[in-house]
Amino acid sequence: MVKKLIRCTQCNQVIHLYEGFGDFGETPDLPDIEWSSEDLNSQKEFFHDHKSHAIEEIFVDPDTSISDKPCYEPTKTIYFETSNGRQKFLIRRTKLALDQPACYEIIPGRLQVSNVSCRIQENDLRKQLSLQNGAAPLPEEIVKKFIQAFQEEVESIPPEKLFQEVEEIQEGDTPLLVYGSLKEAHWKSVLQRCQQYFQKPELLKIMHFIRDNKNPEDVLALLIKRDMAILDHKTE
């Protein structure tokens, strides 16, 4: 489905286009947004106030939509980028209350999202390792060495290259918190670190544990925290 807004080229103001309104065709859709009658009334006012102005469609890049609140939270601020094919515009959508219409603004600058920290789920990992092996748990020293090898491998990855080194990611409570699964090459490196400490049966148990618990929703997923900033267009 096309994702778009309407921009007044004279006033540089924007509004979301709702189904059945105007002559612009398809219904647009933005992720993580719920619409209300107040939003529809706001659109009516927009078309009335700008009826003699030139307006254009601007299309949303859905991959740039980000907020510091969960997707299920209706009252929040969302940032996303749009384009008319010639220019790019950074949009801030704010909804302060359920009974108030959402406010859209074109704001100067560009959006930058960066990774600020990455850590393993150490406490949950220790618990899972104990549960995984039932009546014959791995020795505490082996668990400690595995977690150490895992941590060292993660710390060897530069933050700016983190997303190049994960196989897949899954969003957490907010887009600023994601879970990532390491690529296979990193797990091979972790096992190489473990070889000098583990006997073959212990190494096989760890190999099976990695195989079963390395996906983004599992305990071996990396917990990645991100930050967003609005940069001036001149900022490199």
Question: Can you describe what's shown?
Answer:
There is one protein chain. This protein is an alpha+beta fold. The protein is 28% helix and 31% strand. It has five helices and ten strands, in the order E-E-H-E-E-E-E-E-H-H-E-E-H-H-E. The strands form two sheets. The chain has a six-stranded antiparallel beta sheet, covered by helices on one side. A four-stranded antiparallel beta sheet has the order 7-10-9-8. The longest helix has 16 residues. The chain is elongated and about 80 Å long. About 4% of the residues have low confidence.
Tertiary shape:
elongated
Q: What's the number of helices?
A: 5
Strand content: 25-35%
The residue-averaged pLDDT reads 84
**Uncertain segments of ≥5 residues (pLDDT<50)?**
20-29
How much helicity do the residues have? 25-40%
Largest sheet: 6 strands, antiparallel
**Widest sheet: strand order?**
2-1-3-4-5-6
User: What is the element string, with H for helices and E for strands?
Assistant: EEHEEEEEHHEEHHE
Q: How far apart are the termini?
A: 33 Å
Oligomeric composition of the shown chains: single chain
**Strand tally, please?**
10
Rounded Rg: 24 Å
Class computed from helices, strands and strand pairing: alpha+beta
Explain briefly what this protein structure is.
This protein has 236 residues and is α+β, with helices and mostly antiparallel strands.
